[in-house]
Structures are given as C-alpha cells and as structure tokens.
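Friendly challenge for the regulars: who can give me the structure tokens for this chain first? No prize, just bragging rights.
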Amino acid sequence: MSRDSARRRRQRRVRKKVTGTPLRPRLNVFRSNKHIYAQVIDDMHGETLAAASSCEKKLRESDLSGREKAYRVGEILAERAQQRNVDKVVFDRAGYKFHGQVKSLAEGARDGGLDL
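First reply, four minutes later:
Bragging rights claimed.
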C-alpha cells in the first residue's frame, strides 16, 4: 500500500465521524510537497467559509520555514473565520499525522482565536 492510499484510508475513517455544521464548521488541512492549505467548511450547505494557504503572496515571499508558514496560515485562517463569525471549529487532519506542519497550523489557529 502506498503512502497516499494509506492516508486516504485514514481520511475516510475519520470523515465518518467528523462533519461540519453551521454552528461548528470543519477546519480541513491539505499538504502538498511545497505548500499547506486550510479551509473552514460548512458541510451542511457545502460552502467554504474561509480559506488560507502558504501560496499567498506575503507568505510565499517570506523566508520562513515550513512549520512557521503553517503557523502563520493558521493565524490568517482564524482571522478570516472570525470575520465570518466562526469561533468554534472541528479539526479535520485529513489522514495526516498530528505533528509538524499540521500541528503548527492547529496551534496558529488556536492562538488566532479559534476553538478547536
């Protein structure tokens, strides 16, 4: 089994239990080789309430490490979610282990004011 197929299997297992509601939307994380992306999603209405990624211009041009960029993405996402009156979210790590960049993103979102 490849690494990607194992992650997708873990992701399906977690998504059986984790769904986003209008009161507590889902904070989803996706990692590529170079970047990290995060979205706050209301699954009941199928809409993205807020999004942030390390591809944004001010983060892409900075000389931060991967974990530092992930932390900043979490802070930016929390700020954008709070502008949409979202204070509480459920964290969906999408099958990734909760360490490194994924953990830094969660810490940045917590420090930015989101309740995970």
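The longest strand covers residues 36-42. The beta strands are 26-31, 36-42, 47-53, 90-92. Your move, everyone else.
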